[in-house]
From TrEMBL:
This is CoA-acylating methylmalonate-semialdehyde dehydrogenase. SUPFAM superfamilies: ALDH-like (SSF53720). It comes from Psychroserpens ponticola. Transmembrane segments: none annotated. It holds the Pfam family Aldedh. CDD domains: ALDH_F6_MMSDH. InterPro entries: Ald_DH/histidinol_DH, Ald_DH_C, Ald_DH_N, Aldehyde_DH_dom, MeMal-semiAld_DH. Residues 22-474 form the Aldehyde dehydrogenase domain.
């Protein structure tokens, strides 16, 4: 197991360029790989949030007064530091989150890509100006909001913070970030590398903790915008509380993604895509496949899926789930489905990994003959589990997909362009895949779901985030175009 540095063995808040910790309450941070204690974090208070906001507020005039190009230079350097420190950052994600090395590395690479979009902002964000009548010009300029906040979940300790941080900062805002208390280590290294890249003190701050910190962020009068990523239950709380305090808010919630498999789908490609989607990151992705709707004759594809899933080995190419409670919850869902008459084709319950008996592992699980009233069909499981619902035709399959309260992603597997088009048009989800199990849009396209998978206007990354992190200043000027240079006479 990786040894962590001093700044990581006892996590501190990062305020005004300094790591500090008031030792009031602390919480242990455990590695899900084997259940061992790897660090501890402060459970910060409203006062800590205020300290961070004051630092961010103090830093704002100078930071927002720099040119776009000056701010961007820091993120060029930072992006390169992510690359230079790739192995360490990858191992850190693995240690605190439990995913495999390859999955963790892909996450850090995505963070680099997010920075690459941010550094292209001077080319994208071009202000508008037009002469609207003789001598009168209207211009629109994008201005930063001020101090903004970002609250992140456990499942992507490195990538999700980069959904917000580079764009918000390059656009001139200063930030207070609250990482998940389960995975606080990656954010500490981000702060250190940002400082190394030349980010001025106070522009980026971290306050660790749980509910109290989130509530203080939603209530703080000097925070202008709140971005949240996490479960739907908390997304609703944050969205209501932040907007009732008259803040801008975008809150991304949970998911229940349906993959529609038609009988003409390429069997091998479909089976491997569905299995990769349900088991990647141990199913702890908001884009993970959770329900497969098999339309008509797809038994041959299900058989292949079971074979493919057997190759997913916990502790090897299948990572752990985040906590002992998560393992219990996931296994509880499988128990309940079995009790209600579903057929367990592959059972990942009671999995242990030799040498890592304290870790939290669930094997790949495939549940067949699930009906729409079962909890495994309706609720987010967030583990390497897929439920198969059988549908007689495409209309019924789309109806099942649209019956979900969520709407993050949906996908269809078919070789018919016309049938794929019907799903593209009719599925009620923000991100649609055709023959792709994890349809994540890449920059400059934006990431965000529909229904109870997202609250607020716009999406969190890409072009859409530019709207979220800025406000328009409209200036009208009038100068006499007939003016003469007569001051010399
Ligand atoms: P979570 O909602 O439990 O926690 C998210 C954040 O909210 C954390 O920082 C946590 O400290 C805070 N929090 C938790 N309970 C709170 C409360 N009662 N009041 C105020 N704040 C609270 O989510 P999680 O378990 O860390 O992450 C997994 C969830 O995130 C899944 O539902 C997953 O689908 C979702 N997720 C969604 C997306 C997306 O893009 N839609 C992306 C990643 C994760």
């Amino acid at each position: 197991m990786m040894n962590v540095s001093d700044t990581l063995s006892e996590v501190k808040n990062y305020i005004d360029g300094k790591f500090e910790r008031n030792d009031q309450n602390a919480m242990d941070v455990l590695s899900p790989l084997d259940g061992s204690k790897i660090s501890s974090i402060p459970l910060s208070t409203t006062q800590d949030v205020d300290d961070a906001v004051q630092a961010a507020k103090k830093a704002f005039p100078e930071w927002s007064g720099m040119t776009f190009k000056e701010r961007v230079q820091i993120f060029f350097r930072y992006r390169n530091l992510l690359e230079q420190n790739m192995d360490e950052l990858t191992k850190l994600v693995q240690l605190e989150n439990g995913k495999t090395y390859g999955e963790a590395k892909a996450e850090v690479e995505k963070s680099m890509e997010l920075c690459e979009f941010a550094v292209s902002m001077p080319q994208i964000v071009v202000n508008e100006v037009q002469e609207v009548s003789k001598g009168v010009e209207c211009r629109i300029e994008r201005k930063p909001l001020g101090v903004v906040a970002s609250i992140t979940p456990f499942n992507f300790p490195n990538m999700v913070p980069h959904w917000t941080l580079p764009n918000a900062l390059v656009l001139g805002n200063t930030m207070v970030m609250k990482p998940s208390e389960l995975v606080p280590l990656s954010t500490v290294r981000m702060a250190e590398l940002l400082k190394e890249a030349g980010l001025p003190n106070g522009v980026f701050n971290i306050v660790n903790g749980g509910k109290e910190v989130v509530e203080a962020i939603c209530d703080h009068p000097k925070i202008e915008a709140v971005s949240f990523v996490g479960s739907t239950k908390v997304a609703k709380i944050v969205y209501k509380r932040a907007t009732s305090n008259l803040k801008r808010c975008v809150a991304l919630g949970g998911a229940k993604n349906h993959l529609l498999v038609l009988p003409d789908a390429n069997p091998e490609m479909t089976a491997s895509n569905v299995v990769a989607s349900m088991s990647g990151c141990a199913g702890q992705r908001c884009m993970a496949a959770s329900v497969m709707v098999g339309v008509d004759k797809v038994q041959h594809i299900i058989d292949l899926m079971v074979e493919d899933a057997k190759a997913m080995v916990p502790g090897d190419n299948l990572g752990s789930v985040i906590t002992a409670e998560a393992k219990k919850r996931i296994e509880g869902y499988i128990d309940e489905a079995e009790k209600n008459g579903a057929k367990i084709l592959l059972d990942g319950r009671n999995t242990t990994v030799k040498g890592k008996e304290g870790g939290y592992y669930v094997g790949p699980t495939i549940i067949d003959y699930v009906t729409t009233d079962m909890s495994v069909a309706r609720e987010e499981i967030f583990g390497p589990v897929i439920s198969i619902i059988r549908a007689k035709d495409l209309d019924e399959a789309i109806e099942i997909e649209n019956g979900s309260n969520y709407g993050n992603a949906a996908a269809v597997f078919t070789q018919s362009g016309g049938l794929a088009k019907q799903v593209m048009e009719r599925a009620s989800a923000g991100m649609i895949g055709v023959n792709i199990g994890v349809p994540v849009p890449r920059e400059p396209f934006s990431f965000g779901g529909w229904n109870e998978s997202k609250f607020g206007v716009g999406d969190i990354t890409g072009r859409s985030s530019i709207e979220f992190w800025t406000q328009n200043k409209k200036t009208t000027t009038k100068w006499n175009p007939e003016a003469q240079t007569n001051w010399m006479s």
